[in-house]
Amino acid sequence: MVSDKHGLKDQVAGKLKEVKGKLTNDKGEQVAGKVQKTFGKAKDKLQDVKEKMSEKTREAKYMHWLWVLIVGGVIGLAAGAITRRGGSMGVISNIIAGLVGSALGEAILGAWGPQVAGMAIIPSIVGAVILVLIVSLIFGIRPET
């Protein structure tokens, strides 16, 4: 059985109606066949557009998450620099501090000010600073001199 995913069924049925109309000299059947065939082609084009949009949406989601990780890392780096405790933090720690700090800061202060990758910069940095200070207290990490 042929799938009607791309309008092939309508194209074939339309062509059959068109041929039947020509054989029986029925102009109405010919026009109906052409219309149905065109409808099948339109379904094809619509499906192609839908698939391309789905692919572009998927690519945009990946780019969004890449930006989230980059911005989270920069926020964690800024928090480490502000608290002077960032020397011992690696890239992964900066990203985690930035992302968790962003959630903490926006939960406490709200999402105001400029935003990048869905994170409000000022509350995110404040939250990351608070997080770095708390973690430093727990693990006994002293400020760098």
Give the tags.
mainly alpha; two-stranded antiparallel sheet; 4 helices; 77% helix
Describe the protein's architecture and organization.
The protein has 145 residues and is mainly alpha-helical. It is built from 4 helices and 2 strands. The chain has helices at residues 8-23, 27-83, 91-109, 121-139, and strands spanning 115-116, 119-120. A two-stranded antiparallel ribbon has the order 1-2. Strand 1 (115-116) and strand 2 form a beta hairpin. It is rod-shaped and about 95 Å long.
The rounded Rg comes to 30 Å
The proportion of residues in beta strands is under 5%
End-to-end gap: 75 Å
> Which geometry do the CA atoms define?
rod-shaped
Q: How are the strands ordered across the major sheet?
A: 1-2
How is the secondary structure organized here?
Layout lengths: L7 H16 L3 H57 L7 H19 L5 E2 L2 E2 H19 L6
Antiparallel strand pairs: 1-2
Helix pairs in contact: 1-2, 2-3, 2-4, 3-4
Summarize the structure.
By secondary structure, the chain is mostly helical. The chain is built from four helices and two strands, in the order αααββα. The longest helix is centred in the middle third of the chain and has 57 residues, at 27-83.
